[in-house]
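About this split. The held-out portion is used to measure sequence recovery: a designer receives only the structure tokens and must propose an amino acid at every position. Recovery is the fraction of positions where the proposal matches the reference. Here is one held-out target exactly as it appears in the evaluation file.
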């Protein structure tokens, strides 16, 4: 009970103290729009591709609070997350309910304690997303399947259908559970009722599951002909071509979610693990996460439990059911799943794994004889969790040390899912580092603070590669931001290694000799301002000539723009810059062609304004500007993604 209380307190405090993560507003927006308007399309916003009505309780609770007069955004965010704390409580109860009838009370308590002290389960219990709900419904589905197989009845069949229907609502990977449950008739032998009654039970399960799915989708667009939908995945495209008038047996939004999940998951993703990037994932991704994101002594105990559980597989049906589901899901997510961008994709396996390990410890007689060791493991795990109280998402175990180098092992939503963005300013101020340069485009002389995912290369692997390879952070803020002290000598090396430009033969095209150039002395600061709304592709060519070489830079003072160099095709290979960011190039002697591309306002009626400053460092240079339209899409330079101006890649089908 102490472990359970700690888990719920940790999740509740994190739900209150953390800022929005990347996905939460999109989850809530899709569901709230469905409730308010009945619209369920997924094309207007890219990250609507995989959203489900599983956040319906979150949306309804927030709407009720608004109707009651609550206006404080932090309170509304907390209330929107509160149902996820409830899902955490259901996971802990479900683990106990699954383990006790199968393996006994002691195994059930051990499994519940381990689950409660697993910070990954706790972390997602503090967020208004679907991963915690899916873990809860998977545990419930497996528990209901085992209960039905032990003693089939209409009541247990209905409970099975309810749990599986909720799993289908929560995530589009839930149909994969059917493969995990298909072994039930083979591992539970004997005592089954007549085939006709079992068939009736199965039909009843299917009917309950269908009713659950349809009701959570508000019975919208059931029966819509499949030929009316623009499908993206090959299976559904083939189905629509073969039988275009076939009415959808479930809400169309359910099928479009599966469709877009299948299509998007097959693409390339920025999987970063052990300091390397794997665009389509790598087989050991989830194994590494299990090793570094499980409290250390719980991990050791779990491995011992798995070894002991091997004896159970020969004769215990629930142990075989658990082992099959763990093996099947891990095989798929490790070898067939491309979008490996977080441990959350296999979160549902964490409590199942603890049940099997606890069963092994108890059945082998290890738990009673090693109670003091198990208590020590729980106490140490509690201490590890306490170090991340309020920020369990960033957890790595004691084997990852020093913590400022955790980005070399894991990244993405395994540590930083944007939960610290809103409070980073206050965190830095409290640490006495208010002078830091927060999230620069590239490192600059002085105190630099980089977001962990930008440093690790999750969004752009090349942006801070030089920093990763040559510098070590001095420390971290909230585990999600790393800081560096960069002296002038280091900055000179950085410019020489990564930002050096040589004169190119094609410069004569965009910067012919007749372009007037104005002399700028060392240290010059030249103001640049635009207030005319641009069209797409509007920009400028910046012609810079230097006799002995110069460091030439641009500071975005107000607004957003793209700055870079003219490449051989005449396009602008540019980096997106937001206000406050600085971009430097080291120019060799000669003439150079740089470029700016303006970015129109998304809302065309808003007044347009951009201000910047040209910077000259070290030696003098001559500078001239020309208007130019860049009609073709501007190719990005390595390191072109600004961590503050961009969002992470959209999540895949789950």
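Reference sequence for scoring:
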């Amino acid at each position: 009970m102490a472990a359970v209380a700690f888990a719920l307190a940790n999740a509740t405090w994190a739900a209150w103290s953390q800022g929005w993560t990347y996905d939460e507003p999109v989850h809530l927006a899709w569901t709230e729009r469905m409730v308010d308007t009945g619209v369920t399309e997924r094309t207007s916003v890219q990250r609507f591709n995989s959203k489900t009505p599983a956040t319906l309780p979150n949306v309804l609770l927030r709407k009720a609070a608004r109707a009651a007069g609550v206006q404080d955004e932090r309170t509304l965010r907390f209330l929107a997350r509160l149902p996820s704390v409830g899902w955490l409580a259901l996971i802990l109860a479900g683990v106990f309910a699954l383990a006790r009838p199968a393996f006994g009370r002691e195994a059930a308590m051990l499994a519940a304690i381990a689950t409660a002290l697993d910070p990954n389960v706790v972390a997602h219990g503090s967020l208004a997303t679907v991963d915690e709900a899916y873990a809860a419904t998977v545990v419930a589905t497996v528990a209901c399947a085992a209960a039905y197989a032990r003693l089939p009845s209409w009541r247990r069949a209905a409970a099975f259908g309810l749990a599986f229907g909720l799993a289908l609502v929560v995530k589009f990977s839930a149909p994969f559970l059917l493969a995990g449950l298909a072994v039930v008739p083979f591992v539970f032998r004997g005592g089954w009722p007549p085939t006709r009654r079992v068939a009736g039970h199965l039909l009843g399960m299917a009917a309950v599951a269908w009713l659950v799915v349809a009701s959570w989708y508000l019975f919208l667009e059931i029966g819509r002909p499949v030929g009316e939908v623009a499908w993206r995945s090959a299976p559904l495209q083939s189905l629509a071509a073969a039988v275009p008038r076939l009415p959808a047996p479930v809400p169309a939004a359910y099928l479009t979610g599966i469709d877009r999940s299948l299509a998007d998951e097959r693409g390339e993703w920025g999987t970063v693990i052990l300091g390397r990037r794997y665009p389509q994932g790598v087989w050991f991704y989830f194994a590494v996460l299990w090793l570094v994101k499980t409290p250390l002594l719980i991990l050791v105990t779990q491995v011992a439990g798995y070894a002991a559980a091997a004896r159970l597989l020969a004769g215990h049906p629930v142990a075989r059911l658990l082992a099959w589901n763990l093996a099947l899901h891990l095989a798929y997510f490790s070898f067939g799943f491309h979008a490996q961008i977080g441990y959350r994709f296999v979160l549902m396996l964490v409590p199942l794994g603890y049940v099997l390990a606890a069963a092994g410890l108890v059945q082998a007689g290890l738990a009673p004889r090693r109670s003091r060791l198990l208590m020590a493991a729980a106490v140490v795990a509690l201490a590890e969790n306490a170090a991340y109280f309020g920020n369990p998402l960033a957890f790595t175990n004691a084997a990852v040390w020093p913590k400022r180098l955790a980005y070399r092992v894991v990244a993405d939503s395994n540590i930083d899912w944007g939960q610290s963005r809103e409070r980073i300013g206050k965190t830095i101020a409290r640490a006495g580092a208010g002078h830091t340069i927060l999230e620069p485009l590239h490192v600059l002389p002085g105190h630099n603070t980089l977001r962990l995912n930008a440093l690790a290369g999750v969004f752009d692997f090349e942006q801070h590669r030089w920093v990763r390879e040559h510098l070590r952070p001095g420390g971290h803020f909230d585990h999600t931001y790393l800081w560096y002290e960069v002296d002038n000598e280091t900055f000179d090396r950085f410019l020489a290694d990564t930002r050096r430009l040589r004169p190119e033969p094609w410069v004569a095209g965009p910067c012919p000799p007749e372009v007037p150039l104005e002399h700028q002395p060392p240290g010059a600061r030249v103001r640049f301002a635009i207030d005319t709304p641009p069209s797409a592709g509007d920009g400028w060519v910046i012609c810079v000539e230097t006799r002995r070489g110069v460091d030439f830079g641009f500071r975005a003072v107000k607004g957003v723009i793209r700055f870079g160099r003219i490449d051989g095709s005449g396009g602008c290979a540019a980096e997106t810059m937001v206000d406050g960011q600085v971009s430097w190039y080291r120019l060799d002697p000669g003439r150079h062609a740089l470029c700016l591309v303006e970015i129109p306002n998304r809302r065309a009626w808003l007044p347009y304004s951009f201000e910047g400053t040209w910077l000259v460092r070290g030696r003098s240079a001559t500078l001239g500007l020309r208007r130019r339209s860049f009609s073709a899409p501007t190719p990005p330079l390595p390191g072109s993604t600004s961590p503050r101006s961009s969002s992470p890649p959209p999540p895949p089908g789950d």
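Annotator remark: The chain is about 45% helix and 15% strand.
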